[in-house]
Design a protein that fits this description.
Radius of gyration: 35 Å
Helix content: 10-25%
Shape: elongated
Number of helices: 9
Strand order of the largest sheet: 11-10-9-8-13-14-15-16-12
Low-confidence stretches: 19-33, 67-80
Structural class: alpha+beta
Oligomer: single chain
Mean pLDDT: 88
Length: about 475
């Protein structure tokens, strides 16, 4: 190939490249964007969406509240990112459902417009004289835009639409219509009690078991404050708050406020007050729970526009006594913190377990470390079944087991657990137990008490037939 031909081919290639980058691709992108009326609106820039599902369904407006605008009154609840329903002050928004609507709008793609020569001037042909759905969108950076959805073309499997500010009739995918054709109830949260465990500061419950209050002075640490002061179980509190947070709605009763007695809420069986940190979606929650005349479980909260029919009855989860909520772990320690464990009592012969430079010794003998570690873990994780109210005078006259635990450290700390006689509560066999010289007595399950009895034969290595040591089978 000579230089002239090479130069010509180079010029052709340069012109083709310039055309693609400067003309063809920009035109393709402009054509694509012109078919997406909301593509230039940032996700966070949507501020108001009015949806009119049809003539027989009430229209409604969801809007992002300006927190500095005191003129807008929507009650004490809004979605996590500030959205609310104008016609339902206090209603909690389903953020996931709303995000789906916004995503559908941003990706809404118009095909057309239809050929003017074939376009019928009778808009009833397209169902646009009485639209099946209207969606009005506002944003600070974009003019108001309304999209009207008409009939579905069975031949094309698409729906006819008109867009304000654009002439002609367009087509859109049927999936977009389905994603936007939502009633206000479909955009409401089905779990409206917005409780975040780490944000909770104080909880008060009035139930058939009586009043009880507890606080969270430090995240993850709970304390019962009324009617008496005790450390609360983080596990028990978490289960209670989870039952509240996950309580689902099966039906919204928007006209129920005037007839609370029908739902057992005129004199509710349970009242719940939760204070969360300032700045949360629901900093103060005052909820009531009851059983309706139909036998279903209902609830509502202060500021709610509705009564809610629940999918489950959580009254048992909320009816808690101080004993139910108290911390039942006898101590906060791990097996690695233990230096020595000494046992005595009628359960078995005395055993002395000591930490060595390698693992453990049992009565001065080489231990089976796996079995020792399991025993120490069982001891460290020991929990009370309940708290004794009536203790016989001879409960500890002949101890079943006494464990003396020594913790590691420059100044070793000693803990003593004494387990006494049996007692029966219902179908359970329990044993009285106490720490040190404490006057408070707890009840342990008999099976748990027996599990933590050290037995030398079970904790030392067994000699092998050849004279070596073999672990337990």
């Amino acid at each position: 190939m000579n230089i002239k031909k090479t130069l010509i081919l180079g010029i052709v290639l340069l012109v083709a490249t310039l055309y693609l980058t400067k003309v063809s691709e920009p035109n393709r992108r402009i054509a694509s964007e012109s078919g997406r009326p909301f593509s230039e609106v940032a996700f966070a820039d949507f501020s108001l969406i009015r949806i009119q599902p049809g003539e027989s369904v009430a229209s409604y407006t969801v809007f992002k509240r300006d927190r500095s605008d005191n003129k807008i009154e929507i009650g004490g609840v809004e979605s996590a990112d500030g959205w609310a329903i104008a016609e339902l002050p206090g209603a909690s928004i389903d953020v996931g459902g709303l995000n789906g609507v916004i995503t559908t709008l941003r990706t809404l793609t118009l095909e057309g417009p239809l050929n003017d020569k074939k376009l019928s001037r009778d808009f009833s042909v397209y169902g646009l004289d009485k639209p099946r759905l209207k969606v009005l969108v506002e944003s600070p950076s974009h003019e108001k835009t309304e999209v009207s959805f008409g009939k579905k073309s069975e031949y094309l499997q698409q729906r006819y639409v008109m867009v304000s500010g654009r002439s002609g009739v367009y087509l859109v995918d049927e999936g977009a219509f389905a994603a936007l054709n939502k009633t206000s109830q479909e955009l409401r949260s089905k779990t409206p009690l917005l409780v975040v465990e780490a944000d909770v500061r104080e909880v008060e419950i009035q139930s058939p078991s009586g009043p009880v209050s507890f606080t969270q002075p430090t995240v993850g640490e709970w304390r019962i404050t009324k009617p008496t002061s005790y450390e609360a179980s983080a596990k028990a509190v978490s289960e209670l708050l989870t039952s509240v947070r996950t309580l689902q709605v099966s039906e919204f009763v928007d006209d129920g406020a005037g007839r609370l007695g029908d739902f057992g809420l005129g004199a509710p069986i349970i009242k719940l007050s939760i204070k969360q940190r300032q700045g949360t979606v629901m900093p103060s929650l005052e909820a009531s729970f009851g059983t309706g005349k139909d036998g279903a479980f209902y609830f509502t909260y202060a500021g709610s526009p509705s009564v809610f029919k629940a999918t489950a009855d959580i009254s048992a989860a909320l009816t808690k006594t101080v004993s139910d909520l108290r911390e039942k772990r006898l101590w906060k320690l791990t097996s690695r913190e233990l230096e020595r464990v000494v046992s005595s009592g009628s359960a078995d012969n005395a055993v002395d377990i000591r930490a060595t430079s390698v693992d453990w010794s049992v009565n001065g003998k080489v231990s089976d470390a796996v079995f020792v570690e399991q025993l120490l873990n069982d001891i460290a994780q020991l929990e009370a079944h309940s708290f004794a109210t009536n203790v016989p005078v001879d409960a500890f006259a002949s101890p079943f087991l006494v464990l003396t635990l020594t913790k590691k450290g420059p100044t070793p700390e000693t803990l003593v657990l004494t387990i006494g006689k049996e007692t029966r509560v219902g179908q359970e066999t329990l044993r009285y137990a106490r720490l040190g010289t404490s006057e408070e007595v707890v009840l342990l399950r008999d099976v748990e008490a027996k599990r933590i009895v050290p037995h030398e034969g079970a904790l030392i290595e067994r000699p092998s037939p050849a004279g070596g040591a073999t672990p337990h089978p």
